[in-house]
Each structure stands twice: as C-alpha cells, then as structure tokens.
C-alpha cells in the first residue's frame, strides 16, 4: 500500500501535457481523478515514474451541446455528470450510470474521461459509450482524431491511444426524444466494480422496437457492444421469446473471468439478467 | 408540595447528576474521536525514528535457498535489514504463541504461508523501507502445499512443521501426525454414543464456519524505543492486552519487566486481531535495541488481512439425537480445526479449542461429546476470537444451525423446537453436559417477547403464501425467517480453569479519590472503542455517589495501570467491571468510617443515600462523598491512615452467560442470488445494563460484523495457497448502504455472582447474529429440500443453490 517513487508534473495546456507524455514515454502516465491509477500504484501493480496531472488544464471540465451531439470534457467529474441538467434532459442514462459508480467521495474526484480512457473492463462508462455510439477525441502532437468507443478498446488496459495521446473529450450523439434507457448493475457493495452490468437504449413505435443498442460491462477483457442481441430486438414487440433470444445472444459474447465476484458462468448469466432488467426498464420509459 | 414529593425530587436530581449506571451517558471519548484528536500508534513521531517493512513470501510453502540483502542495504536511506540469521543468535527467530506453539518471527529454512515474514528492512522513511523490500533477493524452492485441512493428516501429506516434526507430544497432548496439533475431547462419549444408537431421530450435518478476519479499521502496529543508557524499552502498540505483552516481551527478551514500559494508546478496533504477538512487534523491538533509536512498524491493509490473526476455519460435524416428539437427547460434535502454519490461537492456555464446549447452547441436553482435532495447513496462523469469546461463535453456529436441521427433519416449527428444549428458569445455575455452570437465564420469557415483537406467527403465514406464489411462478423471491437463540460464555475467567501462559485471568481496578472529590481510576483492561472511559466511570458514580464527569478513567499504560489481562472475550465488564465495583466498595467502607467520625455517630447509625452517608432517621444530618474525601486527607479519624483509594484484583468465581433471541426476515432474489434483509430484531439479555446507549451501539456493531461474516466476508485460498481477496476491494466490509436496519430490545436477568449483576454484551450480537442470518438463508430454501447451505451466503453462491435446484428454468 506504499507506492514507488515518481515525479509529478502539472501542465496547464493540452499541448504541454501531450509534449510531456511524449517526451517521458512509457514511464509516464496521465493522471485524471486518480481513482483507478492510484490504487494500482499503492499495490505497485503500476509503478509510473512520472505522473502528468491533467487537473490544471483549462477547458477539459465542461458539458455542452454542439449540434446533435453532447460534448463532455474529459476532466468532467462523475459528480458533475450527475448534476448536469443538460445531460439529465438529453442523455439521462449517463446520470443513471454515474450514480452507480463507486461512492459520492470518489465520484467527486473521478472523471468521465479517466473512466473511459483507462481501459479497465470494470469501469462502467465504456460500455455505456459503446451503447450510445459515442466517439472519443484523442489529442496528440498532430492535433485531434476521433475514434468510436466501439473501436477504442483492444484488451484489458489496452486502448487505441497512441503514445503521447490524451483522451480530451467525449462526443455523444443525442438519442432520439422519447427513447427508453436503462443501466442495470449488479455489485457486491457500494464502491464495487460490476459483477455484470448492462446498458440499454431503445426506441419504440406503435409497440414495436425500432432501434436498440446494448453495452455490457465487466464480462470480458473489454466492454462489449452486443450488436447481435440488439439486432434481434429490432422489429419485435419485445415479446418473451425475442427477449430470451437477445439475452442468449448477449450471454454468448461474454468471456468473464472467475473472481471473488463469482465464477465465470455466474457472471455470464448475470449479464443476461442485467440486460433483461435494463431492457424492462427501458421499455417502460420509452414513449411508444 | 408535600415533604415526600420534595424528597423524591431531590433524590431524583441527585441521581441524575451522577450519570451512573442505567444512564444513556454520551461517550466521553467521542469528544476527541469525532474531532480527529485521538492519538493512535501511527500518530507517534519520535526524534530519529526509523521505519520498518517486511519482505514477504510469495509462496505458500517453499524452502528458502538463499537471502541476499546486498542490494537493499545499498539503497540510500536503508539502515539495516534483519533476517532469521540475525535473530537466531538472540533466540528470537521464533517466538512463543499463546497456544503453546512457537511461531517464526522471520522465516529461517522454510516459508509456510503466503506473505510470511522473511526479512525486515529498517530505513529512514516508510517509502524507502518499502522500496528496499523489493531489493532483497530471496531464492525459493517451491514445495507442495496443503490448503484443505482434510488433507493435512493424509499419510502422504507433505510435512509442514519440520521444526517440530519429531515432537510428537504437543502442548495439548499427543499428536497423531506431523501436521496434527492436538486432539481435545470433552463429555461422555460412551453415554452419548449409546443415546445416538437408540434415538428415534438423529441428524448429522457438516457445518463450516469459514475462515475470515476481524479487520479492525486500524491495522496492527508498534513503535519500540530502547534507551541504551537506562537499559529500558518503551513499546507503544495496538495491544488489547498490554500487560501480557509486557510479560511476554520480558520473557523472550530477557529484559527485566520493570524496565519495559508498554503503552497502548487509542486503538481503532481490535475484535481479537490485537490480542496476539506479531513478528512486527518483535522486529521493531529488536531493531530499536540493536540500533538504539525508535523503530516504527505499521501494517498495511493487505498485510493485516493476509498475515495477522484470522478467525474461524472450523469444520464441524454436528449431530443431534431426539425423540420423535422433539426432545433433544444428545449432541455429538467433531471439529476439524484449521489453525494455519502455527498454532497461534488466542485462547486461555488450557483451552486449545476455546470454549467450544458451550455448543450445547441454550438447551437442556442430557449428554454430549465434543472432539476437536487441530491441524496445520499452509495458511496464515491465528484462530482468534473475532468479536466473540473463544470459539463461541463457532459453537453457537453449530447448535443453532443443527437445531434447525433437526426441526426440519421432525417437521416441527424451529421456534417451537427451541422452546421445548430450553433450559428452564428454575434450572439455573445449570450444569451443562460439557462442563459449564450457567449462572442465570430466563430463556422462555425472552423468546416469547421476541416472537411477539417480530410477529412470528404472521410471518410464517406470509411465508407460506409466498412459497405458494413462488411455486405458481408469480414471484421470483424466496422469503426466509432466521432464528437464533444463543447463550454466550464470557468474562474469562476463574483461575481454576483460565490462564494465559500461566497468568491467571483476573483483572483489576485502582481508584483514587482526590481531596476535592474528583477521581482517577485505572484498569488492567484496554478499550479499543468499547467506551470504557464512559462506562467504568458510571459504575464508580453509582457506587460512590460522585458524578461520572468528575471521574477520569485511564487504561493502557503498564507503568500506571494495575496488572490485568486485557480486553477481549467480553471480559471487561464481567471482570474489570467487577473489580471496579469491589474497589469502590472498599472506598465506601472507609468513607463510612470517616463519615461516622465527622457526624460523631456510630458507623452502624449511617445509611447510604445516593451520594452521601446520612444518619438513620435524621436525613438532614449527612456528609457527601465530596466532603468525606476532604476529611479523608485532612482530618481522618484517629488510628485511620489518611487518603481515600483502593485497588482490587478480581478473580471471577464463574463466567457470565449472556443470552438473546434474534429474528431475521430475508428476501432472496432467486435469479441473482442477492439476499436482502427486510427486518432484523435482536433481543439481548446482558444482565444489569450500565449504559443502554453503549449497549445499543455494541449491538449495532456486532450485528453488522455478523451480517458481514454470514453474507460474504471470507479469507479464501486457491489451490496454490494464494490468499484471495485480501483487500477491501474483495473483503466484504459492509457500508451503511448494505447494512440492514437493526431493531433492538432487551430483558434483564442479572448475573448472581457479579457484584453489579452485569454480564457483558459487546460480542453477543456477533455470536447470535451469524447463525441467525445463515438460518434465514437456509430457511428460505428449506421448502425446496435444498439441504444445508454453507456460508458465506454471497450472491453467486446462492445463485448456485438455485442452479442446483433447477430454479432458473
């Protein structure tokens, strides 16, 4: 529980942060809220020699609507996500998800960008971003590039971030008015990562599901976008047989680890149960 | 207003002013705790103080081929690196355990559990010490390990303790195998076997009370400071029993006991974890003696959970024999006890399985037999009493689960079966089949009060309806009703059967009244959060008529406090609380002589009235204790020495036997295995109640720990002996969100042998709570013929039960 030695840097611009990260190379890690990285450092599972704190960079803590997107600065805390009326109106599933992350103290420090960029399969936001079709703005020496959340995660703690790149903002296409949503998370206690969790966004018309998107948390090395399960739902009335088939399709793509949360078979089944419950809530919320 | 009313009001006001026994007095220690002004071991900063950290074994069982400290010693800031080779010439590479075994301080030839201490780095700061542990190069040769205690005594099992492999007589008799520690038997085997051979109904169930950990918020830690000029050692530490630590340090270091000053400052929870002696204490002492400067050792959370004393790990084959009408005729229990790599149980020395023989519980069981086999495995050592008297949680779990299994086999209601077999109020003092003398109890009254309060009959009716609805597919929830009626045995204990390393388990109080009537009192116990500074003062307030606010309580400094055996096993109130009352009564007797002299009457003409002695029949002629105190110093009667103080070393004539009736209502989501506690009602009878608010706090805390143990808290090992989940990420420490709401209640059946009739309460809720939760879970699935479901009842395990029973479609 005693971290190794490291140097601490606190740049004030994205450019200087990028330059620092590039210059310091693999021994450096960007620091956002720190609530994933610092516990790893305390157990020396991570031992970066340099921490580049992004906290003093202006403009990374913001939520705004730009056209048909909502744009969230990477250093926006989970606490700010929860308290944003803009998000509550336009993408309410963000608030529902942020509220089941950790506890109020951690949400006050933890950031949405850190949650998305760290590549920890236990984090809740990545699967939600895949569900919402969000894209990440990655800033490097050559400027910005956009990468879809669905393409960003390569493995546990492995992402599309190139050396020196920083995830600076998240762009979320605003779901249609009247959409139904639900984020359902099973955890052992407050502060725990999910045993399994599911994010669901659907639209309904005349009792028929017209679109669906599903993300699954912590049941593989990466967050999972359950495209096939969602495809099965579209065009149905969300009848029992269809939902059963979608749940089976979602369960089929999971590859969870066995850990103290339970054996793999349990976590796969819980992904199914969470999906079923999230879908149930989404359906109730959807304006038909 | 008539005269009598005036007198009554005056007496009520004077009583209230004392804040004595029965008063919900606010905890005086909380003034500093709630402001962050407590003073814990880690708050100590001494000039020149160095910091120690351990190199720990990654293997569960391995031979140490070599240890090279060169690189570590070369790191700037590192002062010394201790290994077994350094301790061996001092005879300190092993230390004695409380259970008559020895325990490695630093591993010599072998490591026997993961994270075992191998070397101790001493450096200028905590970070350098930690960095240097990574620079100690240890070469291991891995050996096959034993994780499953049932494999420990197989003929071809690897021998773990090579240091004692030829010593076939252990501290508690013959050993049957090199990995066997002891066999302990009690009761009438022949008569018990006879009853079982002929009984109408018998049940037999393997009940596992799994391995867990007391996990106090403050970990174990020490600061040792050796003064080379004076030859004196001062040792601050997280000690539940500071005086015993002083004696042990003297015995193993050779330093005379008067040159050792042991100080336990504020302690952030103990729950049994801080009773034993640990390698870190020894290494900080050795480091300070060798280097002549203070050395601090502070355990981190993972070290705490994975190395210092675990609790439980009892595998109890439990049998009951009964008539078909439900009268229990006999009990037979065999325990396989997993003690880990060393026998470091913190029990009174003659009791290798603690007070496991309280396992006949609250029932009049004519014959019983208990046998316990302790074995070594490649796990951390310990087996401490986690918020309970020695092995009492295990014992109560055995009887309270077994009686439910019997009820199911008989087709009887579990509450009714208990009532049918209760020891009756008129049978006290009751001699149990396994050798205890229960001091007092009124179980029928408590059970009836509890059943009425919870609405037992209505709950069973609701459950029957819900079960039908479940069968019809209308709900996916199962409702369970848990019952536990426990009898504890606390307050160790009488010298005839309780000692620690030969030191009888008395306790002590020294009370000194100052001339102005305020008081300092010191006890041999040590609070770790129990609120002693508040409650001991209340006992003195009532006994001596001095306001509790004028009484200061001190514990934990062995230079000033009288010798005592410390705080664990709910012994503070039963033993030191008794010493406090007796010492106060000695003072009161002297005060009466002084008052008689002051009032110029005969002693026999005086009577005690709340805070004063008054002349019988002349209530206006009196002397308050405050006035008496002044006279005691300045104008004592002729031939009476001045001063007003007393000390008492109290050796209890018997244990005390608190009891209680607990009920739990639980709803379980079959599809996820998540269990939700709807209600939990706890009726406790701890005899005389000193501070109802503190009792309620103790009950809340104990129930929360019981909830944790039953519902998910565990220390698990994989097949390689890797300790799993030794951090708060996985180790289940419930937050306020998970913790159920508690309903508390009480009856009062005083202990007949205790000076104030008090029995102790801190551990009852834990002891009674664990089986109550487990019974609720088991009851939820009982109608599906699930069989006994082992703890811990976390969600995935309950889901597996549903899977086994085909409940998931």
* Structural domain tally of chain B: 3
Largest interface: A-B, 25 and 31 residues
> Quaternary status of these chains?
heterodimer
Count of distinct strands of chain A? 14
Q: How many beta-strand elements of chain B?
A: 38
What is the N-to-C order of secondary-structure elements of chain A (H for helix, E for strand)?
EHEHEEEHHHHHHEEHEEEEEEEHHH
Kindly summarize this structure in a few lines.
The complex is a heterodimer of chains A (288) and B (809). Chain A has 12 helices and 14 strands. Chain A is of the alpha+beta class.
Kindly describe this structure.
The complex is a heterodimer of chains A (288) and B (809). Chain A is of the alpha+beta class. Chain A has three domains: 7-53, 2-Layer Sandwich (Uridine Diphospho-n-acetylenolpyruvylglucosamine Reductase, domain 2), CATH 3.30.43; 63-173, 2-Layer Sandwich (Uridine Diphospho-n-acetylenolpyruvylglucosamine Reductase, domain 3), CATH 3.30.465.10; 181-285, Enolase-like, domain 1, CATH 3.30.390.50. Chain A is 35% helix and 26% strand. Chain A has helices at residues 14-24, 37-42, 78-83, 85-90, 92-98, 104-109, 112-117, 125-132, 149-152, 227-233, 240-252, 264-285; strands at residues 7-9, 28-31, 50-53, 63-66, 69-73, 135-140, 143-148, 153-155, 158-159, 166-173, 180-186, 196-205, 208-217, 224-225. Chain A has a five-stranded antiparallel beta sheet. In chain A, strand 2 (28-31), helix 2 (37-42) and strand 3 (50-53) form a beta-alpha-beta unit. In chain A, helix 10 runs antiparallel to helix 11 and helix 11 (240-252) crosses helix 12. The longest helix of chain A has 22 residues, at 264-285. Chain A starts with 6 loop residues before the first strand and ends with a helix. The model of chain A has no long low-confidence stretch (mean pLDDT 97). Chain B is of the alpha+beta class. Chain B is built from 19 helices and 38 strands. In chain B, the strands form twelve sheets. Chain B has a seven-stranded mixed beta sheet, sandwiched between helices. The longest helix of chain B has 28 residues, at 572-599. Chain B is globular, with a radius of gyration of 28 Å. The A-B interface holds A 1-5, 39, 43-44, 103, 186, 188-192, 195, 259-263, 266, 269-270, 273 and B 53, 126-127, 130-131, 134, 300-302, 671-674, 712, 716, 724-725, 727, 729-730, 732, 734-735, 737-738, 794-796, 799-800, 808.
């Amino acid at each position: 529980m005693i971290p190794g030695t490291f140097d601490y840097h606190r740049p004030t611009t994205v450019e200087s942060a990028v330059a620092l990260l590039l210059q310091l190379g693999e021994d450096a890690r960007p620091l956002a809220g720190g609530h994933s990285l610092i516990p790893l450092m305390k157990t020396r599972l991570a031992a970066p020699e340099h921490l580049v704190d992004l906290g003093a960079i202006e403009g990374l803590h913001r939520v705004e609507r730009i056209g048909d997107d909502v744009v969230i600065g990477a250093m926006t805390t989970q606490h700010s996500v929860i308290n944003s009326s803009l998000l509550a109106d336009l993408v309410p599933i963000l608030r529902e998800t942020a509220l089941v992350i950790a506890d109020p103290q951690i949400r006050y420090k933890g950031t949405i960008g850190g949650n998305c960029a760290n590549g920890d399969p236990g984090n809740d936001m990545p699967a939600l971003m895949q569900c919402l079709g969000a894209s990440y703005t990655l800033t490097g020496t050559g400027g910005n590039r956009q990468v879809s959340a669905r393409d960003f995660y390569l493995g546990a703690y492995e992402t599309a971030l190139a050396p020196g790149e920083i995830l600076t903002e998240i762009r979320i296409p605003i779901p249609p008015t009247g959409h139904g949503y639900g984020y359902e998370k099973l955890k052992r206690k407050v502060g725990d990562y999910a045993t399994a969790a599911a994010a669901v966004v659907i639209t309904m018309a005349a009792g028929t599901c017209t679109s669906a998107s599903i993300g699954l948390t912590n049941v593989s090395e990466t967050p999972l976008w359950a495209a096939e399960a969602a495809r099965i739902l579209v065009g149905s009335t969300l009848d029992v047989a269809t939902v059963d088939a979608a749940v089976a399709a979602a369960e089929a793509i999971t590859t969870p680890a066995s850990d103290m949360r339970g054996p793999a078979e349990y976590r796969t089944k819980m992904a199914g149960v969470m999906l079923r419950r999230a879908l149930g809530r989404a359906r109730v919320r959807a304006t038909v | 207003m008539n005269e009598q009313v005036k007198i009554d009001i005056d007496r009520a006001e004077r009583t209230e002013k004392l804040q004595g026994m029965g008063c919900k007095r606010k905890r005086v220690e909380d003034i500093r705790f709630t402001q962050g002004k407590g003073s814990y071991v880690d708050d100590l900063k001494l000039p020149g103080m160095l910091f120690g950290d351990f190199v720990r074994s990654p293997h569960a069982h391995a031979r140490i081929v070599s240890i090279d400290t060169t690189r570590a010693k070369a790191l700037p800031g590192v002062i010394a690196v201790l290994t077994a080779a350094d301790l061996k010439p001092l005879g300190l590479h092993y230390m004695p355990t409380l259970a008559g075994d020895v325990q490695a301080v630093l591993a010599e030839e072998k490591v026997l559990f993961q994270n075992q201490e191998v070397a101790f780095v001493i450096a200028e700061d905590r970070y350098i010490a930690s960095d240097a542990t990574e620079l100690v190069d240890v070469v291991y040769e891995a050996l096959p390990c034993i994780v499953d205690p049932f494999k420990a005594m197989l003929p071809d099992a690897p021998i773990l303790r090579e240091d004692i492999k030829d010593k076939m007589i252990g501290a508690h008799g013959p050993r049957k195998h090199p990995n066997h520690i002891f066999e302990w038997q009690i009761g009438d085997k022949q008569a018990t076997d006879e009853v079982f051979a002929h009984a109408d109904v018998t049940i037999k169930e393997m009940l596992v009370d799994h391995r867990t950990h007391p996990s106090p918020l403050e970990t174990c830690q020490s600061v040792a400071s050796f003064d080379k000029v004076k030859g004196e050692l001062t040792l601050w530490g997280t000690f539940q029993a500071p005086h015993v630590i002083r004696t042990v340090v003297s015995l193993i270091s050779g330093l005379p006991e008067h040159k050792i000053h042991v100080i336990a400052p504020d302690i952030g929870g103990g729950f049994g974890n801080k009773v034993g002696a640990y390698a870190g204490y020894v290494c900080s002492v050795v480091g300070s003696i060798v280097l002549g400067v203070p050395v601090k050792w502070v355990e981190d959370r993972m070290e705490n959970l994975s190395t210092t004393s675990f609790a439980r790990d009892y595998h109890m084959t439990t049998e009951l024999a009964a008539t078909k009408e439900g009268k229990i005729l006999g009990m037979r229990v065999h325990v396989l006890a997993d003690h880990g790599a060393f026998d470091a149980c913190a029990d009174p020395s003659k009791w290798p399985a603690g007070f496991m023989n309280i396992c006949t519980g609250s029932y009049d069981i004519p014959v019983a037999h208990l046998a316990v086999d302790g074995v070594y495995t490649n796990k951390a050592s310990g087996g401490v009493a986690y918020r309970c008297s020695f092995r009492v949680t295990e014992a109560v779990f055995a009887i309270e689960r077994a009686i439910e299994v019997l009820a199911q086999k008989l087709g009887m209601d579990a509450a009714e079966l208990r009532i049918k077999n209760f020891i009756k109020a008129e049978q006290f003092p009751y001699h149990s089949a396994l050798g205890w003398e229960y001091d007092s109890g009124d179980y029928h009254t408590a059970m009836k009060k509890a059943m009425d309060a919870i609405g037992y009959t209505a709950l069973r009716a609701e459950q029957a309806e819900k079960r039908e609805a479940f069968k019809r597919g209308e709900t996916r929830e199962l409702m369970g009703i848990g019952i536990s009626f426990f009898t504890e045995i606390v307050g160790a204990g009488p010298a005839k059967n309780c000692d620690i390393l030969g030191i009888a388990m008395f306790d002590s109080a020294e009370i000194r009244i100052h001339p102005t009537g305020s008081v300092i009192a010191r006890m041999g116990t040590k609070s770790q959060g129990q609120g002693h500074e508040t409650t001991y003062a209340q006992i003195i307030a009532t006994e001596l008529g001095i306001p509790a606010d004028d009484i200061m309580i001190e514990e934990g400094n062995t230079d000033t406090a009288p010798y005592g055996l410390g705080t664990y096993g709910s012994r503070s109130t039963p033993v030191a609380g008794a010493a406090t009352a007796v010492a106060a009564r000695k003072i009161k007797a002297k005060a009466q002589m002084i008052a008689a002299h002051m009032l110029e009457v005969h002693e026999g003409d005086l009577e005690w009235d709340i805070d004063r002695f008054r002349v019988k029949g002349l209530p206006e002629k009196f002397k308050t204790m405050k006035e008496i105190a002044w006279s005691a110093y300045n104008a004592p009667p002729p031939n009476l020495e001045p001063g007003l103080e007393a000390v008492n070393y109290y050796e209890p004539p018997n244990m005390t036997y608190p009891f209680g009736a607990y009920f739990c209502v639980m709803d379980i989501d079959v599809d996820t295995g998540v269990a939700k506690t709807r209600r939990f009602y706890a009726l406790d009878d701890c005899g005389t109640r000193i501070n109802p608010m503190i009792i309620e706090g103790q009950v809340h805390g104990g129930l929360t720990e019981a909830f944790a143990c039953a519902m998910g808290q565990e220390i698990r090992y994989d097949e390689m002996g890797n300790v799993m989940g030794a951090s708060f990420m996985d180790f289940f420490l419930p937050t306020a969100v998970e913790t159920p709401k508690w309903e508390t209640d009480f009856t009062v059946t005083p202990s007949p042998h205790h000076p104030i009739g008090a029995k102790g309460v801190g551990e009852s809720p834990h002891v009674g709570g664990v089986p109550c939760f487990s019974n609720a879970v088991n009851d939820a699935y009982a109608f599906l013929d699930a069989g006994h479901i082992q703890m811990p009842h976390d969600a995935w395990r309950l889901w597996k039960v549903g899977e086994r029973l085909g409940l998931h479609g």
